[in-house]
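SAMPLE LOG
Freezer: B-3
Tube label: C17
Construct: single chain, 578 aa
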Amino acid sequence: MDNLPKCGANYVSLTPLTFLTRASKCYANRTSIIYGNVRFTWRQTYERCCRVASSLRSLNIVKNDVVSVLAPNVPAIYEMHFAVPMAGAVLNTINTRLDAKNIAIILKHSEAKVFFVDYEYLEIAKKALELLATSKMTRIPLVVVIDDIDSPTGIQLGELEYEQLVHQGNPSYVPEEITDEWDPITLNYTSGTTSEPKGVVYSHRGAFLSTLSLLLGWEMGTEPVYLWSLPMFHCNGWTFTWGVAARGGTNVCIRNTTAKEMYTNIVLHNVTHMCCAPIVFNILLEAKPRDEYSKPITTRVQILTGGAPPPVPLLEKIEKLGFHVVHAYGLTEATGPALLCEWQEKWNELPSENQAKLKSRQGVSILTLADVDVKNIDNMLSVPRDGKSIGEVCLRGSSIMKGYYKNDKANYEVFKNGWFFTGDVGVIHQDGYLEIKDRSKDVIISGGENISSIEVENVIMKHKNVVEASVVAMPHPKWGESPCAFVILTKNSQIKEVDIIGHCRSNLPGFMVPKKVKFVEELPKTGTGKVQKNHLRTIAKTFVVVTEKSNHQKSKNTSQVNREKPRYYEQILALSRL
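STRUCTURE (predicted):
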């Protein structure tokens, strides 16, 4: 049987691009995208993607060139998940919460040839490009503005605009053939806040298999109506950018993740599925019952959540509103979710509090993974499945990244003995369900965003009056966790907490700025001089963060309408000043 050869009929490279081709034929007249008053069918979406791919080729974009985009969840960024690889290029979606310095770092490191920018982000994009111009970057990317397709503003930066590329492109364009499924499809950065950012490269094969695994694991049926409450820059929307096409569903795109936009679209379009970090639960819960848009939803909405374990009381509250929550665990390096807390029928008989505790676990591996384990890293043996023995979470399978772009040292550190080492610490229960207990790298997860405590410490240490600093996670009622800094000052220093926070705000993206600074005379350390962060975390748990709600209650001039106007990520940045 070994002499039976592969041929074009029995072997085709795996790529999620086939999901769109199939959707354009099988679901041609179904609604593919809804955005305000804009509607497209799957036939139209396929044609628009062909046009954009054709225009990219005319701009001399060739195989493996990087195309970056800075945009909220609008139709253009969804279409680019297909159009860019259809041109043979690699898509890089940039976190819209980053500042100009970190955007510039990503553009430089990725060597992006084209930079698509939504009109709302033009100012920060200009600053990033100015920084590039003063750096050693030999080529500045070509800029294409994405104007609002529902309410065009006419704003420009140069001569190119997204809809212009759509109009000028060839609708009969034949997409580049994917002959090697190991070819890169996207480049996602885990952090844009260091001089050596980690660019995670996904393959066509990994994206395809991870998408199918999540569709099966979440039991997403045909014709789902999917609300884009999760940023598409997060692991390519946890692969659901491609997954909705695979199921012939409808993408409901929203520019702002506010309670008004979410409730309005859920009710108006009978949304069936959405993904989000637990912080979005708070946005939904804080909507006033008297507001027209927060009336009870009539259809049960499936929510896949991840980023940080949702507190049990929060899960109980959100489910009472008509949402059904499934918890996931993942990381950028695993092409998004790697574990799902698959629900067992027998758990339905348990009290609601017990159910919520079970749902807060990270669960079992998706089908793409060949194996998941919790290991003692000293001897590489699996820890006992007793829910108590702690070890490092290790993964292996086709959904794991190709590797870090231009970072051999980092690749060597995470790929060992046929496993990918996540850096997360957890336990495995008797039923095989995994639960994260801590992070060996002291990563802080705030609002679904990973924050390196070391990076924050390095910025604080640059202050001339700081002798030593250690940063850990502290509880935050809105974002789950937020950075807390313990700082030793120089002798006779008159520096105050506000000065350290201001220093951080000038050198870090808003979501990374510590919400609390505690001045101490010494830090708890081991005999070898290593800071005992577990002691600091215990102290940090006693600190209180003022919430957005309490601040608004103190101001009689702030209305519910005003709270709904800012974009969701602007709200996060504003809250970082609390």
